[in-house]
Specification:
Blueprint: H1 2-10, H2 27-35, H3 51-60, E1 66-71, E2 76-79, H4 99-102, H5 107-120, E3 124-134, E4 139-152, E5 158-167, H6 169-191, E6 195-200, E7 205-209, H7 211-216, H8 227-230, H9 239-249, E8 253-263, E9 269-282, E10 288-297, H10 299-317, E11 324-330, E12 335-338, H11 340-346, E13 354-355, H12 356-361, H13 368-379, E14 387-394, E15 400-412, E16 415-425, H14 427-449, E17 453-457, E18 463-466, H15 469-474, H16 478-484, H17 492-507, E19 512-519, E20 525-537, E21 540-550, H18 552-625, H19 631-658, E22 666-668, H20 670-685, E23 689-694, E24 702-704, H21 706-723, E25 728-739, E26 751-760, H22 767-771, H23 790-800, E27 804-809, E28 815-822, H24 827-832, E29 848-852, H25 856-868, E30 872-876, H26 879-888, E31 894-898, H27 906-916, E32 922-926, E33 942-944, H28 949-961
Parallel strand pairs: 23-25, 29-30, 29-31, 31-32, 32-33
Antiparallel strand pairs: 1-2, 1-5, 3-4, 4-5, 6-7, 6-10, 8-9, 9-10, 11-12, 11-16, 12-13, 14-15, 15-16, 17-18, 17-21, 19-20, 20-21, 22-24, 25-26, 26-28, 27-28
């Protein structure tokens, strides 16, 4: 733009005769400049302005760029339409005023820039230049890309400064906000307890690594380095290959409890256990531009579980037991005898007989009292207890063994004569139990020192151990966990989930892991990541052992991000909902307007018809009261009949428009249809309308209701006649067409169609009329000249038939209405089916007919018509009454049933009636509102309201001659 202005200034045009000619293409600002009183400004009258000033304005006023020109020593402001919004409420008062007045708040900043350009003749340019401005009732910092250029006068001096600006405030603020967001996000990542890194692709180059990640690699510097360079040890472990696969496929990888060896700063390898995910980050084209790495170090948990596994193995070893021996003590002789295994445990020969003193001497002194008390209770006649005790014995060589002894006294009356029992060597078990206790003591001590939650349950889910971590982390005593378990620490939804899943976990043990919120003793919440493993003794399930660490900070970081996303999503959702609400309100208003037009049109036409009907009936009633009806009364009855038929026609038009009319599609040759209609059209349109036919050869067969298409073509011909004011040329044409996607809603979808068109040489339509042509009751004709349903009926019929409509028109050039009808693919097959032979209708006089209708007047008309034909008629007011009539009246041969009845409709009545009378013929009477109910009923079993007496009798004769199918 600056170059254009400068080029224009170097070759100024001849001064125009009109000094304001430069404002002609200047838009609103051009008009304001032309109307301004310049004589009262430092610039003086326009005719005195230098030619270069007028020429510069002629170039800048129509420009789309934001331009302001500061002219003369007072820096008088002139600007274009594009610049006006930039200064807000300073416009339009700024026009023609010195800049120091309008831009007073930033004059100390702006004036040196303008002075520099005026005094040096140099252009000054800057990107995102900040300015403080008051333009909306308050001050704000704004930013512009600016280019300030001198405008030279003929003598080479600078007349003004041309400022081309582009406001970048939104971009600068967005960039600053993005930078702040990144800084906050970086800080959030760095504080997260889990390790986080971002790898830029291609090459897997570290862009970010938080504190936990740096700790994982022992403080090694990784930023800006490739993974294989910064962490060479991971290459041989396959982690680099996994990154390559994620980058190539765009599919995330999740590692669970993976062993990863990392090198410490001194080069020492250390195995860590990690849960982590490699998550690809893609651009708009789906290319992977980065990989987000996030995980948690589970090494301490793994070590704790290993210690628990060691204690579990010790427990399994401790269950082994020794072999069993037998013993007997004779109280009469005071001697002990026993089996070989018994004496082997004591270190004596197999045939040893020991005295009581010898036996007691072999028992460890610390255990003699307990053994003696248990034995005394066993031989006491008043107690007779089970002798069950474990104690230590010394063999002659000094070897000590643990034995488990059981026995009972043998009594003769109330006298114990001897005692017998078993003895088992439990030395291994007791030794291993001691070792197990020591191991468990060490494990419990280790668990209590861990900054983690450690627990064990039995096979029923009851806590059998909880470490001190529950007290340190949650403030909950381990004893409380032993009594109550997890339930008091969980949220309600997790408590319910635990109760639901616990039986499955203990019925089918499996490793468990997950993050859960736990309630602390003071009512707070922490998030814990826990791992539980089943523990076994041999094949026997003993319960679970588990460990959990506090990951609250990681969850808080994630929740903060989710909260920001949720806030922004909620705002977008609110905006979308508000827009949808406004759109729905607009649509509802449009629908109400359409309903209003429809109601008004229907009311107008029906009021006309009802006036004819009611007026003539009143005259007939008056005439009948005075004597026999004369010819004038009969003529009035004819008027009533004609008005009723017009009402039926109007109803049919409404049904076609709403696409609720039942169509009977058949294979039709539209050329034959047009040829057959030509004579009728000629008589209907009059001799002043010339009718021509342009019928294509090889026309495809159409699938359409033949009666309805004839009515549609006749309707279009009458519309064309009215458009030609009774004089012109009407052309009927046909053609095979293959259409692409529709351009308007009334046009058909893509496919093969037969087009039948009606063209006229009439007045044509304007764009406004064409836009509303298919609206119901929209008409350009005078009141009483038409209902406005003609084209709406055409549209409804075409869409219901599976086709569409198109109007081509222009004012003064006539109109062509094209109706597109679907092609009948199976026309040949349909033509090959022979027609059913005609049958002779049966007489109906003397036949018994049941009439079921809840409308008394309508039922009466039907019954009277049948009685007048000689039928015996039984009437029923609803379906239940009709079923009772069938059950109690003999000889009913057919039924005429209304479809739309309250409670049981006509179709349901017929279905129930045919359970007892499978061949009962039923003629269904419909008023169109119940089309869905008769969707599967054959056409020959239906008659539509209003119907003529002869049509009713013909249908009944046909029905009696050929009974309906049981399912009809």
């Amino acid at each position: 733009m600056a170059a254009l202005v400068c080029a224009a200034m170097t070759q100024p045009p001849a001064a125009p005769r009109d000094p304001l000619a430069f404002t002609v293409r200047g838009g609103d600002m051009g008009r304001r400049i032309a109307a301004h009183d310049w004589a009262a400004t430092p610039l003086g009258p326009v005719e005195d302005w230098p030619a270069v000033l007028r020429h510069t304005l002629a170039v800048m006023l129509p420009a789309q760029a934001e331009i302001v020109l500061f002219w003369g020593p007072q820096q008088v402001a002139l600007y274009n339409d594009a610049y006006a919004p930039t200064i807000g409420n300073k416009h339009p008062a700024a026009l023609g005023r010195p800049a120091c007045e309008t831009w007073a708040e930033l004059w100390d900043d702006l004036e040196p820039l303008l002075t520099h350009v005026r005094t040096t003749g140099e252009t000054y340019a800057a990107k995102d230049r900040p300015f403080y401005i008051e333009r909306a009732g308050y001050g704000e910092q704004v930013y512009f890309d600016i280019s300030y250029s001198p405008v030279a006068l003929d003598d080479g001096s600078v007349g003004g400064v041309l400022c081309i600006v582009s406001e970048t405030t939104g971009r600068v603020r967005a960039a600053r906000e993005l930078s702040e967001d990144r800084a906050r996000l970086h800080q959030m990542f760095d504080q997260a307890p889990g390790f986080v890194a971002v790898l830029r692709e291609p090459g897997h180059v570290f862009e970010l690594a938080n504190a936990a990640y740096r700790m994982l690699v022992d403080g090694r510097e990784v930023i800006g380095r490739r993974v294989d360079d910064a962490l060479p040890e991971v290459v041989s472990q396959g982690l680099l290959g996994l990154l390559d696969e994620v980058q190539a496929t765009g599919a995330a990888f999740r590692g669970v409890d993976m062993p990863v060896t990392v090198l410490r700063a001194d080069g020492t390898p250390e195995e860590r256990r990690l849960d982590f995910v490699y998550q690809p980050v893609t651009d708009a084209q789906g290319q992977v531009t980065a990989i987000f790495v996030q995980g948690i170090d589970l090494t301490e948990q793994h070590r704790a579980l290993a210690a628990l596994a060691l204690s579990r193995d010790s427990l399994e070893l401790a269950t082994r037991m020794g072999e069993i021996g037998t013993w007997e003590y004779d109280l009469r002789t005071g001697t002990f005898t026993g089996s070989e295994r018994n004496w082997a445990m004591h270190g004596y020969p197999p045939d040893t007989v020991a005295t009581r003193a010898q036996f007691l001497a072999a028992i460890h002194p610390d255990d003699r009292a307990a053994m003696a008390a248990s034995f005394a209770a066993a031989i006491d006649p008043a107690v007779r207890a089970l002798h069950d005790v474990e104690y230590r014995i010394f063999q002659p060589d000094g070897t000590m063994r643990w034995v488990a002894v059981t026995g009972r006294g043998v009594f003769d009356g109330d006298v114990c004569t001897r005692a017998i029992g078993t003895i088992t060597d439990v030395t291994a078990r007791r030794t291993e139990a001691d070792a197990l206790r020591e191991s468990e003591q060490r494990f419990r001590a280790l668990a209590d020192e861990m900054e983690a939650l450690v627990w064990m349950t039995d096979e029923t889910g009851r806590f059998v151990f909880a470490n001190a971590g529950f007290q340190k982390i949650l403030g909950v005593a381990p004893e409380t966990m032993l009594r109550h378990g997890w339930a008091p620490l969980l949220r309600e939804e997790h408590r319910a989930m635990l109760a639901e899943r616990m039986p499955l976990y203990y019925r089918e043990p499996r490793p468990l892991r997950g993050d859960y919120p736990l309630t602390t003793a003071d009512g707070g919440t922490i998030w814990a990541h826990g791992v539980s493993q089943p523990r076994y003794s041999g094949d026997r399930f003993l319960g679970y052992v588990g460990c959990a660490v506090d990951v609250t900070e990681r969850h808080l970081a994630g929740e903060a991000l989710e909260e920001r996303v949720a806030e922004r999503t909620a705002e977008l959702t609110r905006q979308i909902a508000e827009r949808e609400r406004v759109e729905e309100t607009l649509h509802q208003m449009q629908r109400l307007e359409a309903v209003g037009q429809l109601t008004s049109g229907v009311a107008h036409d029906f009021n006309n018809l009802l006036t004819v009907v009611l007026g003539n009936i009143e005259m007939i009633a008056h005439a009948a009261a005075n004597g026999p009806l004369d010819a004038r009364a009969l003529q009035r009855l004819e008027h009533v009949r004609i008005a009723a038929e017009r009402g039926a026609t109007l109803t049919a038009q409404l049904l076609a428009f709403s696409r609720r009319q039942r169509l009977e599609a058949k294979t039709v040759d539209l050329n034959d249809t047009v040829r057959a209609l030509a004579p009728l059209m000629a008589s209907t349109l009059g001799r002043s309308i010339a009718i021509e036919q342009e019928l294509a050869d090889g026309i495809w067969p159409a699938l359409v209701d033949p009666t309805q298409i004839e009515l549609i073509l006749l309707n279009l011909a009458i519309n064309a006649r009215d458009a030609m004011a009774g004089c012109g040329r009407l052309t009927l044409s046909t053609a095979n067409v293959s259409l692409d996607a529709p351009q308007r809603p009334e046009e058909p979808v893509a496919g093969d169609y037969i087009r039948v068109a009606v063209s006229d040489t009439g007045t044509g339509m304007t764009d406004e009329v064409l836009a509303r042509a298919f609206e119901p009751f929209f008409t350009t004709k005078e009141v009483g000249k038409g209902s406005g349903l003609g084209l709406a009926q055409v549209f409804g019929f075409a869409k219901q038939s599976g086709g569409g409509v198109r109007i081509d028109t222009a004012p003064g050039e006539g109109t062509t209405v094209s109706v597109y009808l679907p092609r009948a693919r199976d026309a040949a097959a349909a033509a090959a089916v022979p027609a059913a032979p005609a049958t002779t209708a049966a007489p109906i006089a003397g036949r018994c007919i049941l009439v079921v209708d809840d409308e008394d007047n309508v039922r009466q008309v039907t019954a009277d018509a049948l009685r007048a034909a000689g039928c015996r008629v039984v009437e029923a007011v609803d379906g239940d009454t009709g079923l009772r009539a069938l059950a109690h009246t003999r000889g009913i041969e057919a039924v005429v049933a209304d479809v739309a009845m309250p409670g049981m409709n006509g179709v349901e009545f017929a279905r129930r009636a045919r359970r007892r009378h499978p061949d009962l013929p039923v003629l269904f009477v419909t008023g169109y509102a119940d089309m869905a109910a008769i969707a599967d009923v054959p056409e020959e079993q239906i008659i539509r309201k209003p119907y003529a007496r002869d049509a009713l009798l013909a249908r009944v004769r046909q029905m009696l001659d050929r009974p309906a199918a049981a399912g009809g």
